Amino acid sequence: MRGAVAVAVGLWASSLAAGEASNTEEHRALVISAQVMQKEGKLLRARELLATCSSKACADDAQANECEEIRAFCTQRLASVVADIPTANVRVEDDRGLPVRPEVLEVDTVTLDPSKPLALDPGAHVAKALYVGRVGEASFVLERGKQNVSVLVHVDLRETVHRRPVPLPVYLLGATTIASGLLSLATGIYTVSSYQALSSCKPYCGTSQQGTLEATSYVADISAIVAITSAVASAIWFFARPTVSEVRWLHATTERTR
User: Fold this and answer.
1) Contact at 8 Å (CB) between 92 and 129?
2) What is the CA radius of gyration of the chain?
3) Which of 91, 118, 236, 242 is at 20 to 30 A from 42, Cα to Cα?
4) What pLDDT is attached to residue 123?
5) What is the Cα–Cα distance from 183 to 221, expressed in whole angstroms?
6) For residue 218, what are the CA distances in angstroms to 46, 119, 156, 161, 187?
7) How is domain 87-158 classified at the CATH fold level?
8) In the chain, where the domains are located
9) Can you tell me the distance from the alpha carbon of 10 to that of 21, in angstroms, rounded to the nearest whole number?
10) Using an 8 Å Cβ cutoff, are 147 and 87 in contact?
């Protein structure tokens, strides 16, 4: 049988290359090949062979009447094969269910237009969609005569982003460090200048002036301690802050609903 198919296909190819009317033997080879293809489930190939058989004119030979009968048979069988060819509508969505217009959409390595139903042979198929470097796949099976079978391909557009947000206490401690540092600096400058003023009036300086000087010196020391402590605490909190993982979605070019 395989040898007969090979001979038939060879005759068919030579007939097309000649570009002339086919004789009865070539028409017979075409219809035999188409029947074999149809039996094996290769309906697209059978459709092609039958279309050639029905469209090719018959040559003037001794079996011209039989050739015309074969052409009529091919036309009749062609309608039957076309009705048996299943079609699929392939849709692509992301993991949120939003439609996506893929950069590449293939079924069994054949690039297709997702806006049109795709005619395929019965059996198992694999649809692949490519978008922004992400690939989605969907396996599906088509049966004879099934039209507009819906096939959904999911493309996972999620990405996990790791970041370390700065917590609020870091900002509060930083503000405390700045405020305490400025207060310590101001009171320190005031204390130094007051010491210089008191040195000129010793030993006749008043006790109130000495008390004020001691108070400002005490405030300067406390402010410096607070500034240092808050700065250390802010640094520890900043460098020890945890890592947070978030799931984001890549930007998807959606497809308009037809």
Assistant:
1) yes
2) 43
3) 91
4) 92
5) 10
6) 101, 90, 64, 49, 9
7) Immunoglobulin-like (2.60.40)
8) 2-83, 87-158, 168-241
9) 16
10) yes
Burial class (CB within 10 angstroms; exposed 0-12, middle 13-18, buried 19+) of 194: middle
> Residue 207 — very low, low, confident or very high, per pLDDT cuts 50/70/90?
low
Residue 61 pLDDT level (bands cut at 50, 70, 90): low
Q: How many CB atoms neighbour CB 249 within 10 A? A: 13
Confidence of residue 209 (pLDDT cuts 50, 70, 90): low
Q: Tokens in use for 37?
A: 């293809």
Could you read off the pLDDT of 93-136 as tens digits, one per residue? 888 888 888 888 888 888 877 777 889 999 999 999 998 888 99
The residue among 80, 87, 151 whose CA lies nearest residue 120 is 87
Structure confidence at residue 158 (pLDDT): 83
Helices (H) and strands (E) counted in the chain, each on its own, are: 6, 9
The amino acid present at 38, given as its one-letter code, is: Q
Q: Band the pLDDT of 175: cuts 50, 70, 90.
A: very high
Q: Which two tokens stand for residue 147?
A: 């039209």
Report the C-alpha gap between 215 and 111 in whole angstroms: 85
Q: CB–CB of 153/99 below 8 Å?
A: no
First to last CA, the chain: 47
pTM (two decimals): 0.57
